[in-house]
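User: Quick sanity check before I run a bigger batch. Here is a single chain. Can you write out its predicted 3D structure?
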Amino acid sequence: MAKQDADCITLDLFADERRVGRPRTNPLSREQQIRVNKRNQLKRDKSSGLKRVELKLHHQLVQQLEDLASTQNISRAEMIEQILQDYFNIRGNK
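Assistant: Done. Predicted structure follows.
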């Protein structure tokens, strides 16, 4: 019996073949999946009361933030939020 590529019933013929990549379980392309996931993440953030803020900082300042955050075992975003909360708490007490 000759081996045919379309013949997936006889698994023993395909036991030595390596299948590259993850199995395709989603009918959408990877790009479409990323777009849908991003949209869903934004909806979750909005329902949680979060709003996205983007800013540009010099590399040295970002490195200082990352170092400080790592010493406290928190993310950089959490560190920035903590700094802003502290700032507003101090200003509110004046």
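The chain has a mean pLDDT of 83.

User: Great, the batch can go ahead then.
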